[in-house]
Specification:
Structural class of chain A: alpha+beta
CATH architecture of one domain in chain A: Beta Barrel
Order of helices and strands of chain B: HHHHHHH
Strand content of chain A: 25-35%
Shape of chain B: globular
Largest sheet of chain A: 6 strands, antiparallel, barrel
Distance between the termini of chain B: 16 Å
CATH class of one domain in chain A: Mainly Beta
Number of helices of chain A: 3
Strand order of the largest sheet of chain A: 1-2-5-4-3-12
Radius of gyration of chain A: 41 Å
Order of helices and strands of chain A: HHHEEEEEEEEEEEE
Shape of chain A: elongated
Number of strands of chain A: 12
Oligomer: heterodimer
Strand content of chain B: under 5%
Distance between the termini of chain A: 137 Å
CATH topology of one domain in chain A: Thrombin, subunit H
Helix content of chain B: over 70%
CATH superfamily of one domain in chain A: Rod shape-determining protein MreC, domain 1
Structural class of chain B: mainly alpha
Largest sheet of chain B: none
Number of helices of chain B: 7
Number of domains of chain B: 1
Chain lengths: 299, 167
């Protein structure tokens, strides 16, 4: 190879090196791909896309079907963890629910001017229509006695009925044998709330609702009903429920249905009022009524 | 024809490598510099004329520029210079080739004010690329020698190509 040809070769090589330098300078000055770049990219792009598709397909098959070593044991561990966490969540939820109920009871206990005893609901037999028939509490004959009023954070629940051993059954307010003296703050009307004993609801009724303050005032659906404090059982002012239906009005008395404020199916803890109900008075027909344990005296 | 074949094989390898390498976990940054290996091989094995080897290197660099998103001409210039340097120094260590190409790339980016990462990151990247190229280099060059052998005109050239002796 002659010196001249060698020089030409090196010059040509130098020019070939200079070319990309100029292209680089031009592309940096322009900032966008040139026509040649775009054309080449259009030609090479399908090739790159095809290769990527094949490689990613193989990689996907590998990851999804082949490289599954340890997945089964990992899955088992995750299932176990999931079960544990679900149990923890259920326990925590239950505790939170209990705490909420106990907080409500603490408020009730502070507001109630009587000795009370907290009790936990441990059972609630249901009717065929899934209505709670009565509740069972964890206080027995050493703590409570039949007839003692039972209240929850949202209102009266009922009375202690049977006591055996360490447990006691509570007859609900909606039971036909239950009766509570109530008053409607808006009209001043008084009456006796009794349960309707319906198998599918907790509705109660007031058979003879007096028009005490204003004889022309009529109760309406939605009126709030509270305990009057008479009858020596429940303290006055406990919200019992709201009137859901006015079924009769004969001028002096009204008959209404009441939807209790307490959702018995959700009650988890209650307070038992320890003040005993007044003993039956043998001279009730000849004497005046005995003084109530709670509330104001009747005029 | 031989140079064109090597450039095409190198280009396909770069495309495949770009797709495969990111799927491998823990070595994302350690991409072997196939372009530098090819340019160095072309420079080392150029027969009489260096111009076709430089042309092939520049062409490959330009294609790599397009698929890598680098400014067109950057890698082409680097590979062209790598080819010339490999021809000049006749050094057959693949890691050295990657080191030269990496330093050249930093140098060219500096001259043309192409935005780049912090110097520590650049050096760390260069180190892993040098290692990866050092590992992959012999395999790539063996493939190129096979191509050379296929294009050999005589048995002697073929044997020399397979043994890795420059023509």
């Amino acid at each position: 190879m002659t010196l001249r040809r060698r020089l030409v070769d090196w010059c040509f090589a130098g020019l070939l090196v200079l070319l990309p330098a100029l292209v680089l300078k031009a592309s940096l000055a322009r900032g966008t791909p040139s026509g040649l770049d775009t054309a080449l990219l259009r030609i090479t792009a399908p090739l790159e896309a095809g290769v990527s598709w094949v490689v990613e397909g193989i990689g996907g098959v590998w990851n999804r079907y082949v490289a599954l070593v340890g997945v089964e044991s990992e899955n088992r561990e995750l299932r176990d963890d999931n079960d544990k966490l679900r149990k923890q969540l259920a326990a925590t939820t239950r505790k939170a629910f209990d705490v909420e109920a106990l907080e409500d009871l603490a408020v009730v206990k502070r507001r109630t001017p009587a000795d009370t005893l907290g009790a936990r609901v441990i059972g609630a037999p249901l009717s065929p229509q899934f209505k709670v028939l009565r509740i069972r509490i964890d206080r027995g004959d050493r703590d409570v006695a039949p007839g003692m009023p039972v209240i929850s954070g949202t209102g009266p629940v009922g009375r202690v009925d049977k006591v055996y051993g360490d447990y006691a059954d509570v007859t609900l307010m909606s039971d036909v044998s239950s009766s509570i003296e109530v008053l409607i703050p808006r009209t001043g009307g008084r009456g006796m709330l009794t349960g309707l004993g319906r198998p599918d609801s907790y509705a109660c009724t007031i058979g003879w609702l007096e028009k005490q303050i204003n004889p022309t005032a009529k109760v309406e659906v939605g009126d709030e009903i509270v305990t009057s404090g008479l009858g020596a059982s429940f303290p006055p002012g406990l919200v019992v429920g709201k009137i859901s239906k006015v079924s009769r009005d004969d001028g002096m008395f009204q008959r209404v249905e009441v939807e209790p404020s307490v959702d018995v199916s959700r009650v988890r803890a209650v307070e038992v009022l320890l003040a005993p109900p007044p003993p039956p008075d043998p001279d009730a027909k000849t004497k005046k009524r005995s003084e109530p344990a709670f509330g104001g005296r009747p005029l | 024809m031989r140079t064109a074949t090597i450039v095409l094989v190198a280009y396909f390898s770069c495309v495949i490598l770009g797709s495969v390498w990111r799927l491998i976990p823990w070595i994302h940054d350690a991409v072997p510099d196939l372009g530098a290996l090819t340019a160095a091989y072309l420079g080392l094995t150029a027969r009489r004329n260096i111009a076709p080897a430089v042309g092939g290197s520049v062409m490959l660099g330009y294609l790599v520029d397009l698929i890598s998103g680098a400014p067109p001409g950057l890698i082409a210039l680097v590979l062209g210079l790598t080819c010339v340097i490999a021809r000049a120094v006749q050094q057959r260590i693949s890691a050295f080739v990657a080191l030269v190409a990496g330093i050249l790339a930093m140098f060219v980016r500096g001259i043309y004010h192409v935005p780049s990462a912090a110097i520590t990151l650049e050096l760390r990247h260069l180190a892993v690329v040098v290692v990866a190229t050092g590992v992959i280099g012999p395999i790539v060059w063996r493939i190129f020698r096979r191509i050379d052998a296929a294009y050999a005109r005589t048995h002697r050239e073929r044997d020399a190509a397979l043994e890795g002796l420059a023509p």
